Amino acid sequence: MDWKRFWRHVVMTPFAARRAFPASTLEAIQRSVSEQEKHHRGEIRFVVEAELTTPQLRAGLTPRQRATELFAQMGVWDTAERTGVLVYVMLADHKVEILADRGISAVIEPATWQAICESMVAEFREGRFEAGSIRGIEAIAALLAQHFPAAGENVNELSDRPVML
To answer: What is the pTM of this model?
Structure first.
């Protein structure tokens, strides 16, 4: 087990996560997702997790693997046009992962998502969790609007409310 990583997860408590993502920030994220989804046919889910459990750490679960688990558990893959996007923030590891469903992955390169993740992490490093989250959502929405513009009735298939784990 990576002991340095283990201790980062021990120190990162739900209380520390709530300081980074207080209710007002979660509300701002929800408003941003709701507003941005008016311009495209994609569905954005935003998840923040403070730390992993000891068994998850012992198993060597990476933030990407955890994001993949949550992508399935939250049904992000289950949208009509396969246009779901999961934004996963792992606070203890200082990582952001963006996973897109097949419909989106067919037209948007992984490097594009990685660039958005890196810009969000840079904002978070400066303590700007709300601003970094909103900018990330806006960047994702711009890509979705370009490739999957809103047309006709734009049904909201997934909750816009961010999830704190």
So the answer is: 0.96
Q: Which two tokens stand for residue 44?
A: 């954005």
Kind of pairing between the strands at 95-100 and 84-90: antiparallel
Instruction: Give, in order, the Cα–Cα distances in Å from 100 to each of 10, 21, 42, 68, 119.
Output: 30, 23, 10, 10, 18
Pick the CATH number of 3-164 from 3.40.50.300, 3.40.50.40, 3.40.50.80, 3.10.310.50: 3.10.310.50
Tokens 């989804």 correspond to 37
Tokens 């999830």 belong to residue: 163
Positions of the chain with pLDDT lower than 70, given as ranges: none
Element holding 14 (H helix, E strand): helix 14-20
